[in-house]
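User: Hi! I have a protein structure encoded as tokens and I'd like to know what sequence might fold into it. I'm fairly new to this, so please keep things simple.
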């Protein structure tokens, strides 16, 4: 996925390797999160009119930054470390 695919103040779902990601462009600062609802693991959908991530399975809603807006989820979306290579988003491997 490329950073220039995500317009300012919009979100986009994507996949990098085998990981599903949710990317939000916060005025030019990218937030990259797991695209998995923290309630039961469903993939989220971006709602452009409300600027939120929504879970089609059980109705959880998350702010654009991944914090919980409405349950049943109680935990925010996990943030992912990343780097840009040109405009391509590359996930950083977790250090042990």
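Assistant: Happy to help. Inverse folding works backwards from shape to sequence: for each of the 96 positions I chose a residue that suits the local structure. Here it is:
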């Amino acid at each position: 996925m490329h950073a220039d695919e995500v317009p300012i103040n919009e979100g986009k779902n994507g996949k990098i390797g085998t990981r599903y990601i949710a990317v939000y462009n916060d005025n030019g600062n990218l937030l990259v999160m797991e695209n998995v609802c923290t309630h039961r693991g469903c993939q989220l959908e971006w709602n452009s009119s409300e600027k939120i991530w929504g879970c089609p399975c059980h109705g959880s809603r998350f702010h654009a930054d991944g914090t919980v807006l409405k349950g049943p989820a109680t935990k925010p979306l996990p943030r992912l470390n990343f780097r840009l290579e040109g405009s391509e988003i590359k996930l950083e491997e977790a250090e042990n």
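A useful reference point when you look it over: The mean pLDDT is 94. Feel free to ask if any position seems puzzling.
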